[in-house]
Amino acid sequence: MLSEQERHEIEAQSHHYPNNRALCIEALKIVQAHRGWVSDEGIADVAEALQMAAAELEGVATFYNMIFRKPVGRHVILLCDSVSCWIMGYDGLREHLHARLGIGLGETTADGCFTLLPNVCLGACDHAPAMMIDSAHYQDLDPAGIDEILAKYQMNEIREEKKEKREPPDGNTADP
Q1: How many Å apart are CA 28 and CA 95, to the nearest integer?
Q2: Contact 68/76 with Cβ under 8 angstroms?
Q3: Is the dihedral of CA 108, 47, 13, 9 positive or negative?
Q4: What is the distance between the alpha carbons of residues 73 and 113, in angstroms, rounded to a whole number?
Q5: Residues of the chain with confidence (pLDDT) below 50
Q6: Distance in angstroms (rounded) separating the CA atoms of residues 165 and 115
Q7: Phi, psi of 77, rounded to the nearest 5 degrees
Q8: Beta-strand runs (E) in 3-59
Q9: Chain segment 14-42, per-residue pLDDT in tens
Q10: For residue 141, which of 48, 75, 78, 99 has the smallest C-alpha distance?
């Protein structure tokens, strides 16, 4: 069942689209934003809300590569494997990421920090090779640049973890 927040956000988007079929990708993205990925239950929930067949929505979800149909890490790395990126060193960067993260394409690091996925094209052919982490684009990549980028994400993870340990669950940071 969709949460009240998910239902509210989908309804808020509905006036931007001519019909429910056109709204379905946005609705799937909303569910993914709340749940981290779109399960079979999520497909059924959205299908019911949009009065669509679950099979039809499943077809959309599996066609659109930004809808994740299984759990992913807290950060998703999309490594561009377009022709331009292949020419400019994709193979070496893919191997570097495999070694650096200890995972292959389609896998998630043991700590759940990163999921590494291939992507057909990120539209940065003039600055290949390129990758995307969550919604941030990175281009003109080399192994040293990738290490710097990953280090920033990992440092932010450590900061967030420390922050969560300092703050009580109710968010009250006042001293007793």
Answers
A1: 32
A2: yes
A3: negative
A4: 5
A5: 174-176
A6: 25
A7: -100, 120
A8: none
A9: 999 999 999 999 999 999 999 999 999 99
A10: 78
Can you tell me which residue has the tokens 């600055």?
127
Q: Let me know: does 87 contact 128? Beta carbons within 8 Å.
A: yes
Residues 6+ away with beta carbon under 8 Å from 108: 71, 72, 73, 114, 115, 116
Pairing of strands 107-108, 75-80: unpaired
Q: Rounded to whole angstroms, how far apart are CA atoms 133 and 146?
A: 11
**DSSP 8-state code for residue 38:** -
Looking at residue 116, its amino acid is L
pTM metric for this prediction: 0.82
β-strand partners of 133: 77, 136
- Angle among Cα 49, 55, 61 to the nearest 5 degrees reads 80
Task: Give the span between the Cα atoms of 23 and 20, in whole angstroms.
Answer: 5
- Residue 128 has a CB neighbour count (10 Å cut-off) of 21
Rounded Cα–Cα distance for residues 69 and 39 (Å): 6
CA distance 156 to 150: 10
Nearest alpha carbon to residue 27 among 14, 37, 36: 14
Backbone angles phi, psi at 119, to 5 degrees: -140, 135
